[in-house]
Amino acid sequence: MKKVRVNYEKMYYGFPVVLISYYDKEGIANVTTLSSTYTLKDMVMLGFSSKGYAVSQMKEVSDFVINIADSKLMEEIEFCGKNTGADCKKFDRVNLTPVPSEIINAPSIAECPVSIECTLTDVIESPHYKGITNILATIKGRLVSETHLDENANIIIEKFDNISYFNDGVNRGFK
Ligand SMILES: Cc1cc2nc3c(=O)[nH]c(=O)nc-3n(C[C@H](O)[C@H](O)[C@H](O)COP(=O)(O)O)c2cc1C
């Protein structure tokens, strides 16, 4: 393969789009769009721009839910990724339904096939990466739509319709 050296400000090479749902400090349900996540065992890591409303609230309330979005939710993904919860209660503006969790203080989203209930453990704000807040969290529970599970309650991979996010700072899009 002949490669060309490029000089992008960033390169998101296809990350699954998720919707993070939480109750803010006033107890109001809100949601934001995120693509910077990874998980290993019961640990999950999320990357935020430090100035976002969601991350400011999560640092205070600790509990939140990672909801895996699918291709039916493009409009909601774009709305929640363009507007800030500092100005609007996003659940009132889009076709997403918050459902209280049985085990943590955060709502899941009914329209998403997978919801992962989390509690924040660490906030990482390194002087090397100003403006970025990384959140480490423990996974407390996992909810999967029964349509995505086989008779042993294991995932049916073909049922998943996740969206991958690409962005090189100029071209952005989904696959
Ligand atoms: C597809 C997509 C992926 C995004 N991924 C991230 C991300 O990983 N981290 C981040 O801080 N913002 C990300 N954003 C931008 C935030 O969703 C956006 O700034 C949002 O308005 C923040 O809302 P809040 O202030 O309510 O937290 C993404 C937006 C879109 C549309």
CATH superfamily, by name, is Electron Transport, Fmn-binding Protein, Chain A
Ligand kinds: flavin mononucleotide
Shape: globular
Task: Supply the helix-strand structural class.
Answer: mainly beta
Largest sheet: 7 strands, antiparallel
CATH architecture: Roll
Total count of strands: 12
Uncertain runs are none
Proportion in helices: under 10%
How far apart lie the N and C ends? Answer: 23 Å
- Average of pLDDT: 98
Domain module count: 1
Strand order of the largest sheet: 3-2-6-9-10-5-4
Give the radius of gyration.
Answer: 16 Å
What is the CATH class?
A: Mainly Beta
Number of helices: 2
Query: Which fold name corresponds to the CATH topology?
Result: Pnp Oxidase, Chain A
Quick summary:
The protein is mainly β and 175 residues long. It contains 2 helices and 12 strands, in the order βββββαβαββββββ. Strand 4 and strand 5 form a beta hairpin.
Would you give an account of this structure?
The protein is mainly β. It has helices at 53-61, 74-80; strands spanning 12-16, 18-23, 29-34, 37-40, 43-49, 63-68, 98-100, 107-109, 114-124, 132-144, 164-167, 172-174. The two termini are 23 Å apart. Flavin mononucleotide (FMN) binds at residues 17, 32-36, 47-49, 52-54, 77-78, 81-86, 165. Residues 17, 32-36, 47-49, 52-54, 77-78, 81-86, 165 line the site of flavin mononucleotide (FMN).
